[in-house]
Design goal:
EC number: 1.10.3.3
InterPro entries: Cu-oxidase_2nd (IPR001117), Cu-oxidase_C (IPR011706), Cu-oxidase_fam (IPR045087), Cupredoxin (IPR008972)
Structural class: mainly beta
Order of helices and strands: EEEEEEEEEEHEEEHHEEEEEEEEEHE
Family: Belongs to the multicopper oxidase family.
Protein name: L-ascorbate oxidase
Radius of gyration: 22 Å
Strand order of the largest sheet: 12-11-16-21-18-19
Helix content: under 10%
Keywords: Glycoprotein, Oxidoreductase
Length: 345
């Protein structure tokens, strides 16, 4: 139960920390004013409900200005064959009656959710942190240096179910990938760029191996997530936020760029990809290290639908990337190597 004082406004943080299903969140009779998502202030649009996909978070303002009684807060599954509903009570301190048993219905279909995504806008006038000191980031004016199209697939390898990105199903190695790269042992642990920048012509061939993509430091890159399957996908890129500029049904082609939001797309780190659709994000890879790009659906990630993006400093300088701390655990092929702390200068 959540208690509210009449006339007061409350800030609620709504997060989908599940392992598979998208959710729709709503409160009986109370509109939700969106003010933030994943660290970015948004234009304060008002919604009757919000679709929250796996790994995503929203912050909303709710004002207790309705008849003083109890109301249901509802979270229900979206875009699934089954309907799971969770309820909680929002109660006014001077409430005089129970909540109505008639729950507000959830929206139907993924087109509604896609349109809601398009309504999310970055608040360019809010006094909040920006990706550069000038208070704005004109990402729409930066030349794209590389386009990477990533397509998810599901198949079987040696009789076992596997999920993949561009035909490669990731497996973890005994020696952590970043340790191997740091100590110059990459060639003994994994191969860079097993995948190309475009999906394979056919999705039948599956390679089970560590999936590491090499990206040049400080390049501005466009990533297209294509989802040819019938289930919604959700991706997170650790260590980075990106500008979610578009999502549409069908397959992506360069002409689709004319539909991008190049002014005020929200800077975030999780993006959904609807069935038989694509989503586009843009970002500058200016943070050296090895970063995990993964499906937020736990089953998919565990069975290979993830990869790593390696961003290396061309100068091996602590200006760009710190040395590993002296407390870093060393294992695998690196266990007998010199202690970390003196490889970068």
């Amino acid at each position: 139960m959540f208690t509210m004082k009449p006339g007061a406004t409350y800030k609620l943080r709504i997060c989908n920390t599940g392992i598979k299903d998208s959710l729709n969140f709503r409160i009986q009779g109370h509109p939700l004013k969106l003010v933030e998502t994943e660290g970015s202030h948004t234009v304060q649009n008002v919604y009757d409900s919000l679709d929250v996909h796996v790994g995503q978070c929203f912050t909303v303002l709710v004002t207790a200005d309705k008849e003083p009684k109890d109301y249901y807060m509802v979270a229900s599954t979206r875009l699934t064959k089954y309907n799971l509903v969770g309820k909680a009570i929002l109660s006014y301190t001077n409430g005089k009656g129970p909540a109505s048993p008639e729950l507000p219905p959830a929206p139907v279909g993924w087109a509604w959710s896609s349109n809601q995504f398009r309504s999310f806008r970055w608040n360019l006038t809010a006094s909040a942190a920006r990706p550069n000191p000038q208070g704005s980031y004109h990402y729409g004016n930066i030349n794209i240096t590389r386009t990477i199209v990533l397509s998810n697939s599901v198949s079987r390898s040696q009789g076992k179910l596997r999920y993949a990105i561009n035909g490669v199903s990731h497996v973890d190695t005994q020696t952590p990938l970043k340790l191997a790269e740091y100590y110059g042992l990459s060639d003994k642990v994994f191969k860079y760029n097993l995948i190309s920048d475009v999906p394979p012509a056919t999705g039948d061939k599956l390679t089970v191996a560590p999936n590491v993509l090499n990206v040049t430091y400080r390049t501005f890159i466009e990533i297209i997530f294509e989802n040819p399957t019938k289930t919604i996908q959700s991706y997170n890129l650790g260590g980075y936020s990106f500008f979610a500029v578009a999502m549409e049904p069908g397959k992506w082609c360069p002409e689709k760029r004319q539909n991008y939001n190049l002014l005020d797309a929200v800077s975030r780190h999780t993006i959904q990809v609807f069935p038989k659709s694509w989503s586009a994000v843009m970002l500058t890879f200016d943070n050296c290290g090895m970063w995990n790009l993964r499906s937020e659906q736990t089953e998919n990630r565990y069975l290979g639908q993830q990869m790593y993006v390696s961003v290396q400093s061309p100068e091996n300088s602590v200006r760009d990337e710190y040395n590993l701390p002296l407390t870093q655990l060393i294992c695998g092929l690196c266990k007998n190597m010199p202690r970390a702390g003196d490889l970068y200068h």
